From TrEMBL:
Pfam families: Gal-bind_lectin
Protein's name in the database: Galectin
Mitochondrion listed as a keyword: no
Keywords: Lectin
Species name: Eptatretus burgeri
């Protein structure tokens, strides 16, 4: 994703860590061809990490993608919420890609029919769009046991 697509004051961190939980606006919403890159380090004794793409910052906003890594279970679930109802979680992955105390790079690519999730340059999973008007998806939220070093 181009740097100017995220509207916040986090273009260049200069090695600083971003506060978690994090919420940032995606200028003009998502569209096919955009990519969000999150770099950071998983904390020691991590329980979970959550990344969501939502239609606004409200706690009741539709969620186009909730990506949740659960370290104890070794799962990376994907789901969406429309009008207050969650879709069934998708769990299939070739391996669990995150390790406590290790840096990571997470890329979420928005394609015409799906989100594609890549960790450390390895394809992990995809998730078909449930929110069909991608321009409504205008907020990135990150929470859990991690330190964020870069978002672009």
């Amino acid at each position: 994703m181009a740097d100017n697509m995220l509207c916040s004051d986090f273009k260049d961190f200069g090695g600083n860590i971003l506060a978690v939980p994090f919420s940032g606006t995606i200028k003009h919403g998502l569209k096919p061809g955009m990519k969000i890159t999150i770099m950071g380090i998983i904390r020691k004794n991590a329980d979970n990490v959550r990344v969501s793409l939502t239609c606004g910052s409200s706690s009741t906003a539709d969620v186009a993608l909730l990506l949740e890594a659960c370290f104890q279970a070794g799962t990376l679930s994907r789901s969406a919420m429309l009008a207050g109802s969650w879709s069934p979680s998708e769990l299939a992955i070739p391996y669990f890609p995150l390790t406590p105390e290790q840096p990571f790079r997470l890329d979420i690519s928005c394609e015409h029919q799906r989100f594609k999730v890549v960790v450390d340059r390895q394809f992990i999973c995809d998730f078909s769009h449930k929110v069909l008007s991608l321009s409504r998806v205008n907020t990135l939220k990150i929470s859990g046991n991690l330190n964020i070093t870069k978002i672009s």
